[in-house]
Each structure stands twice: as structure tokens, then as C-alpha cells.
């Protein structure tokens, strides 16, 4: 039934005749709920936006399941989920279990596009057989390009300092500043099956992003890298945040947004500003039970601090849903049926509290936004990264079988979410704050 609805919706978007039966009427209602049907007062999408919507709907048609869920503490927001088979897209070596994606937003359309965008990122990021992005290994190990710290290269590959870098398949990337081509080991750029991997560490997905256009995707990818760097410097490096208690710093419109998304919730909610030396605002939105237990967090970076806070808040709402789903599973599933991610959520629910981790609410003495967050539209992410002296690269991951603009952005030197890959930035921040990374990089984190 769902497949039929999606296929009829896709056909209507492609301009095929409306049969006028009940199925077509359902498809029209679905497209209208997404805001994809033209109305007398609606803005006509530009060609790139229209093509992106068609590609998202085509991808939805290839999913095994697509569903909505109510968010328990954010009844005014929307959540979409999807399950899909990588094998259906020519991907092998990752088992037969379906992959999943989720998206949230203040409207059904935002949640739908967020969910399918995440699915596109997952599918585009994985190496294919005979992948056109792969440059087969040469007789020489990868060279250390100026602007790419060797410790970053080794850390990302899981190669110890005394080990040879060896021979690696490569992927061509380009500088975001000059457009000059550079090659990097494939294991840093694409996720490949474990049996083919050279090195101990699988590629992380930080900086993989999709968008209506390639430039949109590049911007989103860089913002994600900036966000992840900031949250690890805070959690593991001891960087002190600023607490924004109720969002009043962003005015009445922001408070109205919170109320509309979350008209009734028993959980407390607050914000932390995590902005670093990179001049782009970064925020965490957190919530807990009244007693300070079961803390959940969402994170976002954006040139506009209000937009960053909204995005962090919506992610937090989605994480509340994820925690509840996983926490309920032991009541109806045997232990051996729980996934690794379920176990992570269950452990977070037990351990993450204000009593156990005071830094979840620890604040600087003045509860105000930083100068960069107060200043309206901040520096763009490319310029902001350049200002601290780091190189930035990108590669187009758009796959013909997915047909949604997707890129990988890389900034050698920024800290990744995986804190076992310790960057110089994290080491220096931890040293300044008298943090012992050997004891702080434990298994429980709010991300």
C-alpha cells in the first residue's frame, strides 16, 4: 500500500495523468501535505529545487519502508523514518540487514526531506564495486600534502606513528580555496567493507552532506565538521560553554517556535553555546527529566545563531524519540536481539545525568551569547575555517542511482566525533583545561 502511494505520488510529480481513483486522491493528499502541489499562493520551486524533490520521491519509492512517528515531547514537530536495502543500490559487503535513516522538522516536508537526504548520504558515502571515485594504489605510499598534518592522516587511518603508511587506494579531492586537486587514502573519504579496509579505522561520516545543490551540500558538510569539532572539544576537552537558559536571547519569535514544537513536556530544556575559535556559532540543545536524569542532546552549527539553535533543538527532540524507542525494547525483545545502537542509548539513559556529569549544565559566569553569536549573520564556513589556518577539501559523491547532490568535506586538523582519533586541537584544549584524555574519553557521551 505504501509503495503504491509513493509510486503514484512520483508519477503525479512527473506530470503523468491523474486516474481519478482513490489511490490517486491519496497521492494528491500526500503531496499536498508535503507542500509539493502548486497552490494559488504557493511559490513555484526553481528548477534545481524541483529536480531535488523528484529525486527524493524516487528514492522514497525504492525504500523498503517509510513511516512517521509522533515525538513524545515535541507534538508540534514531525519525524520521518526510512528503511532501505544497500544491496538494491549495488552495494555489497555490508551484510543483508536494512539500513535506516531518520529526519525531523517543523513540517512534514522538512522531516521527509531530512530523512531522504540522510538516506542519500548513507548510500553515496559507501564504496561500490569498481567505484569510479577509486584510484587504485600506486607503487608509492600516500604523500603528505602541505596543509594535511601527518598525525591527522595516521589517526584517521588507525596507523601507529612507527608503522609505514603502506599502499592505499586513493580518492581525488579538491581544495575548497583554490580548486587544486589532491589525493587522499580512500579509507579517509569513503566507507569500504572491513575485509577490504587498509588500516584499523572505518571512515566516519562527519562532513558527508546532501542538498538541493552541490554548493548547499558543501556548506552543510562544513557546518557539520565545525559542529562536531566543537562538541568534542567541550565534552572531552573541557571547553567551558555558555548557558542559554530559555532561549529568550533570540527573541519572541524563537520562544514561539519552542512553544509550537513543544506545547507540553515534563522535561526541562536548556541551551549551551559551544562556539570555538572558528567564527561560526555552535549550539547544543539539551533536555532532562525534572530530577536531572536521562539527559538527551542535539547539536548544530550555522552562520545564524538563531537558526543553529533551532536545528539543535529539533535534533534534540528526535534524540528524545530515539532514546525512548531503545529504552522500551528490553521489555519486549530478548537481549540478543538488541542492536549495538540500542545498547548505547540504554547506557546513556542510565548514565547521563546532571549529577554524574555537571558539565552538561556548567556555564560561564555570564549567561549571554558570544560576540559572534550576537552579531547576526556570522562568517561563512569556508572563510571561517580558512581564518584559523586549516586547509579544506571536498569531493562530489553524487551517485547516478541516487541522483541527489551529495559531497564529502574534509578539514584536516578539526576534531572528529570519534575521540579516540585525537587531533592536535583536542590535545591542546585538554592540556589547557588540565584534562587527562586517557580517562575522559570513556564510553558514555551525549552524541
Automatic annotation (TrEMBL):
<dbReference type="Pfam" id="PF02624">
    <property type="entry name" value="YcaO"/>
</dbReference>
<feature type="domain" description="YcaO">
    <location>
        <begin position="103"/>
        <end position="447"/>
    </location>
</feature>
<dbReference type="InterPro" id="IPR003776">
    <property type="entry name" value="YcaO-like_dom"/>
</dbReference>
<protein>
    <submittedName>
        <fullName>Thiazole/oxazole-forming peptide maturase SagD family component</fullName>
    </submittedName>
</protein>
